[in-house]
Write a structure and sequence with these properties.
Elements (H helix, E strand, L loop, with lengths): L4 H15 L12 H6 L3 H4 L1 E4 L2 E4 L7 H13 L2 H9 L30 H21 L12 E5 L6 H10 L7 E5 L4 H7 L8 E6 L6 H18 L7 E5 L2 H6 L7 E3 L16 H7 L1 H20 L6 H15 L4 E7 L6 H13 L17 E4 L10 H6 L6 E8 L5 H20 L3 H10 L4 H11 L7 E8 L2 H22 L10 H16 L9 H15 L1
Parallel strand pairs: 3-4, 3-5, 5-6, 6-7, 8-9, 8-10, 10-11
Antiparallel strand pairs: 1-2, 2-11
This protein binds 6-O-phosphono-beta-D-fructofuranose (F6P).
Length: 550
């Protein structure tokens, strides 16, 4: 279906602003002139909600661009689509499902059709709380009577990345349980975890929305054998399941009172707040898990009620549209300046790329413009010593999200000041760059002669005008992590609404799964049947089979 006229005009206005110089003659992608001209730019282009600050003053957004982007949000009916999501409408149209991860945060009042989603959530949360209390208090023990000291979560994708990221961020010495995450079907992963676990003291959660995922079911069978070898038929006392597929959990042999369900209106990459988050609660304690939900709930309330011009997830999404569709930047880097957030980029890679890696609109027409950018990242300062070279001087501008935490949880003030200084300096360096005059002056001061300056000058110039969004948290705790992750979730929703795509399905992951079946059979048989595979795959299979045999 052709784009609605008003929407097409709104897109054209944004694209035109990004192509033409500004009225003062500066380039539409430039940032330095905006900061130079407006002493209050930080005040006007940063927003704080419940202590979380978003600063877009080091982007090239100006008043006109922001107004055009907000008009686009209006033309795309972003607010209407948001409200339809909150009303439990089946906005995931290709799967005919509602999208209600907000209900998981416990605000109450979420329904879908006849179903009281909030009541179901409350019932499961109460069971999770009781289960945690029983494990932590020692009422629930392993088959040999020992208390559980470790929890192993077996899951992949959304059944792994969110909980693993949150636990890594929030776990502190003295927390109730140690948590381990097994995702990859590569048994090297299991072999790396196994020596750290005593089966008599390990609680195993099989986390899978579908309970059919090959990697998870293979690992679950491996681990169940390991439990059985140690505690025999008592293995069941060490197992619990987190899933929507109650028939499959029963078939796997997990008792119904050990199954923590959630519904198909929770997408895998949005599921850390559901039963899938049980490992987080077991590891950090129930109170921490509740604070995590509270942080997300606070961001939900903001997203649902704040005017779009002051709505953090919407503003973050509009900046992305400016970068991707206006200026043609194809990637974004996430740089948390906090080691505890080391797995946040991995979680956001799935959240953003599985959601926004789409090429048709909701009605199946080609989307006609770029959608989700490549997302990658590493904690700062590590990133500075690896890929930041390309972001400073490469030919592809890569906007960065720089995430700073003001107050650390350690006593090493000097280290923390250096960390913050580096994060702030990266944003400044990317924005300001270094021009030829500055490089020349610096080299002259260091005693370089004219020939040397001429030789090195092009290599030492930084173009600058490279955008960053800074997100500042007062401290990193369950509440602020909940806010931060929900901020990105609602940003993803907003981008889906702006691009007119379905951010909640993931058909693109299916083909590889289908094709793996016949290839697995060829590996089991030791050779591919003639003509069964393409020439390249056949060649590789034959070579691998030869190496396995030899
Ligand atoms: O294959 C992709 C995917 O379906 C993700 O969307 C999901 O998070 C992951 O696999 C795991 O799925 P499940 O929780 O059903 O095992």
């Amino acid at each position: 279906m052709a784009e609605d006229k008003g929407l097409a005009a709104a897109w054209a206005a944004v694209e035109a602003l990004a192509r033409r110089p500004r009225p003062d003659g500066t380039a539409p992608h430039s940032i330095r002139p905006l900061l130079a001209a407006d002493p209050d730019r930080f005040g006007r282009f940063s927003w704080t909600v419940d202590g979380l600050l978003l600063d877009l003053s080091k982007t090239s957004l100006d008043d006109r661009a922001l107004a055009a982007l907000l008009a686009l949000a209006g033309a795309a009916d972003l607010a209407g689509k948001r409200d339809a999501m909150a009303r439990g409408e089946a906005i995931n149209a290709t799967e005919r499902r509602a999208v209600l991860h907000m209900a998981l945060r416990g605000a109450g009042g979420f329904r879908t059709g006849e179903e009281d989603a909030s009541a179901e959530v409350a019932a499961v949360l109460a069971r999770m709380r009781d289960f945690c209390a029983a494990v932590h208090g020692g009422a629930l023990r392993g088959a040999t009577g020992e208390r559980f000291t470790d929890v192993l979560n077996i899951g992949i994708g959304g059944s792994d990345l969110g909980p693993a990221m949150a636990t890594r961020t929030l776990w502190r010495e003295g927390a109730p349980l140690r948590a381990h995450y097994l995702g990859n079907v590569d048994a090297h992963a299991w072999e790396a975890i196994r020596p750290r676990l005593d089966p008599a003291r390990t609680l195993v959660l099989v986390a899978s929305k579908t309970f059919t995922t090959q990697e998870t079911m293979t690992n679950a069978a491996l681990v169940r054998n390991w439990l059985r070898a140690a505690v025999g038929e008592g293995a069941g006392q060490h197992l619990a399941a987190l899933s929507t597929n109650l028939a499959a959990t029963a078939e796997f042999g997990i008792a119904p009172d050990r199954v923590f369900p959630f519904r198909d209106w929770v997408g895998g990459r949005f599921s850390l707040w559901s039963a899938i988050g049980l490992s987080i609660a077991l590891a950090i304690g129930w109170e921490g898990f509740e604070r995590l939900l509270a942080g997300a709930r606070a961001m939900d309330a903001h997203f649902l009620s704040a005017p779009l011009a002051q709505n953090l997830p919407v503003l973050l999404a509009l900046a992305e549209v400016w970068h991707v569709n206006g200026l043609g930047y194809p990637a974004r880097a996430v740089l948390p300046y906090d080691q505890r957030l080391a797995r946040l980029p991995a979680h956001l890679q799935q959240l953003e790329m599985e959601s926004l890696g789409k090429r048709v609109t909701l009605d199946g027409a080609p989307v006609g413009r770029a959608t989700g950018p490549v997302v990658f990242g590493e904690p700062g300062t590590d990133a500075q010593h690896s890929f930041m070279q390309l972001i400073h001087q490469g030919t592809t501008p890569v906007p960065c999200d720089i995430i700073l935490v003001a107050r650390p949880d350690h006593p090493h003030a000097d280290s923390h000041r250096k960390l913050l200084a580096n994060g702030l300096a990266q944003a400044k360096a990317l924005m300001r760059g270094k021009d030829a005059a500055a490089v020349e002056a610096e080299m002259r001061a260091a005693g370089a002669d004219a020939a040397e300056i001429a030789r090195l000058l092009p290599h030492r110039v930084f173009p600058g005008d490279r955008p960053t969004a800074t997100i500042l948290l007062p401290q990193l705790d369950p509440f602020t992590l909940g806010q931060l992750v929900a901020l990105y979730e609602h940003k993803v929703f907003s981008l889906g609404a702006l691009w007119g795509i379905n951010a909640f399905d993931q058909w693109g992951v299916e083909l590889g799964k289908q094709l793996a079946g016949p290839i697995l059979r060829a590996l089991e048989q030791g050779a591919p049947a003639a003509g069964a595979q393409d020439g390249s795959t056949t060649g590789l299979l034959r070579t691998i089979s030869g190496l396995l045999a030899g």
